[in-house]
Design goal:
Helix content is 35%, strand content 19%. It is of the alpha+beta class. 21% of the residues are buried.
Length: 297
Amino acid sequence: MTEFLQRWMPVDGSAHGAELDYMTGLLHWLMAVLFVGWVLYFVYVLFRFRAGANPKASYTGVKSRFSSYIEIGVVVAEVILLVAFAIPAWARWVTPHDATDDPLMVRVVGQQFAWNVQYPGPDGVFGPSDPHLVDEATNPIGLDRSGAGARDDVVSINQLHLPVDRPVTVLLSTKDVIHSFFLPTMRVKQDAIPGMEIPVHFKPVMTTPEEAKFPACAATKTCWEIACAQLCGLGHYRMRGFFMVHEQADFDAWMDQQVASVLAEYAEPETAPAAEGDGAEAEPAAMEEGHEDHSSH
């Protein structure tokens, strides 16, 4: 069933995706059995209780407990799927990555109707945000560049870059309403709730193929997308971003380029050196002016 369903599913590029796809296959097997069973039962009822065979209505009804046994069986199957598969898998997925695995930390802030992405830069520290500094055109997350750790932070809109074979933790939040952060090819979906920062853990194990790299992929509609899976307003249909998974060396090169650009843009202005002799000339002038003021008294 899983192989059959994968013909119409996005490619799986995450470490946990195979387990999730397997559970999806099991769930579809259960739904298929229920669908076929209820259809056959419906056809049987139409024939068994047709008007020609039952000219008089029966007020006693069916006394068999067979339907109860079927319902109990369905509940047992659902409990097995939930307890034996879904809950253990969920427990593994929400467990934070081991620090020794050097996970990449990324902040993603949803808003109507875009995804803001913040990387902590080489120092590994996220700079502080201030709502009073929010400018939708130049600073959508209100990053305080004067704050500790903020000078080298990299911020992008609707663009997420990740390294392959390295654990990733996305710190998910939202500026306004509920959004749903959805990476189909990573088998990741998590609601962004106002007032909360929710960690999302996964590990990409596949780099983005050429046909899915942005911006060339936009023409063929083969991009790896960041979708919003929660109706969040009139512009919900256009709330999508793009993400790419690189080899570690390529990701490092991209990050170095972004950091260099940020440091150049927010470099502290250098103080112009004083002209030679200016200080020596200024002091006598000031002394002379003070002498004149004193003598006038």
